[in-house]
Amino acid sequence: MARRVSCLTVSSRFLSVCLALALIPGVAGAESPLDTWLPARAREHAAWFAAKAAGPEGQTAELGLWRERAEGDPGIPDFVPPSSLAPLIRAVEAGVVNITTVGPRSNGLEGMKRATGSGFVLTPDGHVVTNNHVVASAQQIAVRLADGREFAASVVGRDASTDVALLRLSGVDLGRLPALYLGDSDRMAVGDWVVAIGNPFGLDHSVSHGMISAKERVLGVGQFDDFIQTDALINPGNSGGPLFNMKGEVVGVNTAIISQGQGIGFAVPINLVKELLPNLRENGKLERGWLGVVINDDGVNGGERRAPLVKDVYKGSPAAAAGIRSGDRLVAVNGRPIGSYLQLLRKVALLAPGTEAKLSLMRGDATQDVTVRLVARPAQEATEGLIQRTTSEEEVGLVLRDLTPEVAAPLGETAWSGALVSGVAPRSPADSAGLRAGDVVTEVNRRRVKDAAGVRAALSKGSAGASILLRVKRGDALQYIAVAR
Q1: Could you identify which of 39, 333, 356, 452 might form a hypothetical disulfide with 347, taking C-beta atoms 3.0 to 4.6 angstroms apart as the criterion?
Q2: Which residue of the set 239, 317, 360, 392 is catalytic?
């Protein structure tokens, strides 16, 4: 096999030979033409070799197994490594509080137990945010500030599903408390630096720092799972404390840890907390708003999330009053984009009944905004009969027709050999899957069908959310097409 030799290796060897020849002393008293020619050639090749090694624009070329930045290269654009977090910590630590509770022991044991947690000052007049599990069974709550002052506190509202609680301090020396600024957790990205301050194991105002490890973590604790994961150390006693960004804004409420792991902690996003707090202040608990739609969440398409698709609208519901229809896609609530059914559920359910919300929707290719006044969620039995039912074929966006002899003959098809697709609803699951008018459906989920009624019957047997496998004849070709519902 022929061995490959790099151009740079040959050049360097040639340069060495030239230099060696240039250094050979000439015959005494006689000047050879080589005496001037060889040094000149050696200088030219040395200059060429240096330029080749430097690469374009002065950057070091890949000469071997790695590459190195040229001297003076600024490195990664827009990256400024932090030198010290001390100024940030000094600016925000006064708003972090330690919480001590006294309550009955669990498991039926006699006596009282003391527990500790963390929190932060929300308003100058004495509202404090912490975790629900910190104060859930407390009979007495004491809140101590960084300056040593201590106040009794009472629960204004709390919610177990989000693990958020709102407290109110009381006392004669409240004054104006050092309230913290809240940030925008939606703008946080994986890799952003964060700082956690709290009371782990009773160690007053302990500071840890790290970064956002992941977003929208689902831990299986409820329908409002939407946690920020961080490697900033969070330990027992940090619960309820703030997670700060590099502007000193609270972007999360530290909530949970994985006991078997290290550097794996979770925080409730502050945007979720902001949506919940007015509800807790007014109602003392999560009074969930109700929109009145049934959603067909068709998930991810081409690596991108798809806005939830309205499958049905309840008669007399806020959605019906606002003019929302089946087939609309809900793309934003109060200006915040949504990309899944769970995001829609979180944003709507956290709003109290009576709240007006602005919904952005797509109908066909047009986007429009509607205003909806949410109502209290009715009991399940009260909603029975309110739904405007659709047929199975409408759910997936198909318009079907029997292949009667009169219909089949002009198409060159065999009568009663399937169901003719005479129309496909725009932006429907069938449309997204690539079905077209003129297709003939011959099987549904591996079962042969001979007419439109057979297709409807097969579709009605599928479970909600399950994909449908259709065998379709298009011209002379047969193919399988999966339709998400």
Answers
A1: 333
A2: 239
